[in-house]
C-alpha cells in the first residue's frame, strides 16, 4: 500500500497537470473563435468559385487550358495532406494520416505511384509510422495560414500539373463542422471536376471579357489557390476545436483522478490513525 507522502505527491502532480490542461483549453478556445470566423468568411467565396469552375469545365473544351485536361495516363498523383505542427489535439492528425494511407493503399484510380506533399510536422510523423515517407514537408505555416502561403503552394501544384509531373492532385484535410466534430475530406483538386449535366437546364455558353484565354489563365490557377487556402482554414479551425475538446476531457479525467487519489489518501490516513490507536491501547493494557 502506498504511503501518505507518495499519494500526496501524486495528487499535487495531477493538480499541476490539470492547471496546464485548463490553460491550454482556454488558449485553444480563443484561437478557435478566430479560426471559426475566418473559415465562415472564406467558405461562401470558395464554394461559389468551385461551383462556377465546375460549370465552366462542363461547357468548355478541355483543350483550351491544361488544368481542364484530364490526363489519359495514370502515372503519378500528388496528395496534398494538411495536418498540424503541434500535437495534443486528439485524433486530428491520426485521422488524416489513416485516410491518406487508405487512399494510397487502395489506389482505386490505378496510379503507378503517389507523391506526398505534407503541410504540418505531425502529419509527416503519423505517415512515417504507417510506412509512408513524405516527399516534401512544409512546417510552421499552419499556426497562421495566409492566402499568400496558399498561393505559393498552389503555384507549385499548378506548375507540376501543367508540366505533366502529376496526372492528378488530391487534397486531404479535416473539414470543420463544429468544435466537437471534424471529418476528414478527400477532394480531387486537379483536373477540375465538371458539374453534372442537367437535361432540364439548357446549356449556356459563357461570355468572356476581355478574352477567353486571359480569363481562364487567371481564374483557373486562382481556383486552386483558393481551395488550398480554404483547406488550411478548415484544418486550423478543426485543430483548435479538437485541441479544445481534448484538453477539456483531460481536465475532467484529471479531476476524477484527484478525487480517487484523495479518497485513497483519506483511507490510508484513517488506517494509519486506527493502527496507532490500537498500538496505544495495547500498550496501555500491557502496562496494567
TrEMBL record:
InterPro entries: ATP_synth_F1_ATPase_gsu, ATP_synth_F1_gsu, ATP_synth_F1_gsu_CS. Keywords: ATP synthesis, Cell inner membrane, Cell membrane, CF(1), Hydrogen ion transport, Ion transport, Membrane, Transport. The keyword ATP-binding does not apply. It holds the Pfam family ATP-synt. One of its GO terms (biological process) is proton motive force-driven plasma membrane ATP synthesis. It comes from the Bacteria. One of its GO terms (cellular component) is proton-transporting ATP synthase complex. The keyword Ion transport applies. Its main location: membrane. GO terms for molecular function: ATP binding; proton-transporting ATP synthase activity, rotational mechanism. It is a peripheral membrane protein. PROSITE patterns: ATPASE_GAMMA (PS00153). It is found in: Cell inner membrane; Membrane. HAMAP family: ATP_synth_gamma_bact. Belongs to the ATPase gamma chain family. PANTHER family: ATP SYNTHASE GAMMA CHAIN, ATP SYNTHASE SUBUNIT GAMMA, MITOCHONDRIAL. Produces ATP from ADP in the presence of a proton gradient across the membrane. The gamma chain is believed to be important in regulating ATPase activity and the flow of protons through the CF(0) complex. F-type ATPases have 2 components, CF(1) - the catalytic core - and CF(0) - the membrane proton channel. CF(1) has five subunits: alpha(3), beta(3), gamma(1), delta(1), epsilon(1). CF(0) has three main subunits: a, b and c. This is ATP synthase gamma chain. It comes from Syntrophotalea carbinolica (strain DSM 2380 / NBRC 103641 / GraBd1). The gene is atpG-3.
Amino acid at each position: 500500500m502506498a504511503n501518505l507522502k507518495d499519494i500526496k505527491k501524486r495528487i499535487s502532480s495531477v493538480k499541476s497537470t490539470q492547471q496546464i490542461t485548463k490553460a491550454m483549453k482556454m488558449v485553444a478556445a480563443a484561437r478557435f473563435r478566430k479560426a471559426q470566423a475566418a473559415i465562415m468568411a472564406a467558405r461562401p467565396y470558395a464554394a461559389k468559385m468551385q461551383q462556377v469552375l465546375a460549370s465552366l469545365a462542363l461547357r468548355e473544351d478541355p483543350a483550351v487550358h491544361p488544368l481542364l485536361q484530364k490526363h489519359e495516363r495514370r502515372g503519378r498523383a500528388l496528395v496534398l495532406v494538411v495536418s498540424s505542427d503541434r500535437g495534443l489535439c486528439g485524433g486530428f492528425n491520426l485521422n488524416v494520416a489513416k485516410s491518406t494511407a487508405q487512399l494510397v493503399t487502395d489506389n482505386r484510380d490505378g496510379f503507378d505511384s503517389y507523391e506526398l506533399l505534407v503541410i504540418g510536422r505531425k502529419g509527416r510523423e503519423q505517415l512515417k509510422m504507417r510506412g509512408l515517407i513524405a516527399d516534401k514537408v512544409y512546417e510552421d505555416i499552419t499556426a497562421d495560414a495566409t492566402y499568400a502561403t496558399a498561393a505559393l503552394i498552389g503555384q507549385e501544384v499548378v506548375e507540376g500539373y501543367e508540366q505533366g509531373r502529376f496526372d492528378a492532385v488530391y487534397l486531404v484535410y479535416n473539414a470543420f463542422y463544429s468544435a466537437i466534430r471534424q471529418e476528414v475530406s478527400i477532394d480531387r483538386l486537379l483536373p477540375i471536376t465538371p458539374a453534372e449535366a442537367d437535361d432540364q437546364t439548357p446549356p449556356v455558353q459563357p461570355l468572356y471579357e476581355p478574352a477567353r484565354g486571359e480569363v481562364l489563365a487567371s481564374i483557373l490557377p486562382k481556383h486552386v489557390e483558393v481551395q488550398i487556402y480554404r483547406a488550411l482554414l478548415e484544418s486550423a479551425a478543426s485543430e483548435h476545436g479538437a485541441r479544445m475538446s481534448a484538453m477539456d476531457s483531460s481536465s475532467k479525467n484529471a479531476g476524477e483522478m484527484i478525487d480517487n487519489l484523495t479518497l485513497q489518501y483519506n483511507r490510508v490516513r484513517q488506517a494509519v490513525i486506527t493502527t496507532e490507536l490500537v498500538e496505544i491501547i495495547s500498550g496501555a493494557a500491557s502496562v496494567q
